[in-house]
Design a protein that fits this description.
The chain is an all-alpha fold. It contains 6 helices and 2 strands; from the N terminus they run ααααββαα. A two-stranded antiparallel ribbon has the order 1-2. A hairpin with a 4-residue loop joins β1 (124-125) and β2. The longest helix has 42 residues, at 2-43.
């Protein structure tokens, strides 16, 4: 039963990640176009005042979504030096502490990002004539996704622990 639920859940997560991946690629392309256009404009003495603000907005969204992808794929930087040197019996509790610390840190960041976003919602990005909330929302969305993915990794790890999966015994 748990296997079927996890299989369905993994399929949904994979589709979500594909969508996020497409969005990050489009954001990267848009950033390149904006920055390149501004550079060409400067060469031709044409000023695109909005290009810096737009590239900042696109970059913020790109970074936070890319961080969530790194979390999902578990390709974020790890400190393996410590983990490789500890005995096998200590790896499981250390991994659990790792998850708890990461989820706690992300949760705190999310709370403060929401407070910051709403405190600055009336601030306007002058050249784009839009609320700074558009930039701040990137942090809210990215941190929410990253926290969600870390919680899902923790749940999968706990399920593997309780079903006595051999990869967990090896500290994977």
């Amino acid at each position: 039963m748990i296997g079927g639920i996890m299989h369905t859940f993994n399929r949904i997560m994979d589709q979500m990640v594909k969508g996020i991946s497409i969005i990050t690629r489009l954001l990267m392309i848009a950033m390149i176009v904006v920055v390149f256009s501004a550079a060409i404009g400067r060469t031709l003495n044409i000023s695109f005042l909005w290009s810096n603000d737009l590239s900042l907005l696109l970059f913020a969204w790109f970074c936070f979504l890319a961080i969530s992808l790194a979390s999902y794929r578990q390709t974020h930087p790890l400190v393996d030096l410590l983990i490789e040197r500890i005995p096998l019996w200590a790896k499981v509790p250390l991994k659990l502490v790792h998850f708890i610390l990461i989820i706690g840190f992300l949760s705190i960041m999310l709370v403060y990002t929401i407070k910051y976003a709403f405190a600055n919602r009336m601030t306007t990005i002058t050249t784009l004539k839009i609320s700074f909330l558009w930039v701040s929302t990137s942090g809210i969305v990215g941190l929410t996704l990253t926290t969600f993915f870390e919680v899902m990794h923790l749940i999968k790890y706990l399920i593997a622990l309780f079903t006595r999966d051999n990869s967990v015994k090896q500290g994977a």
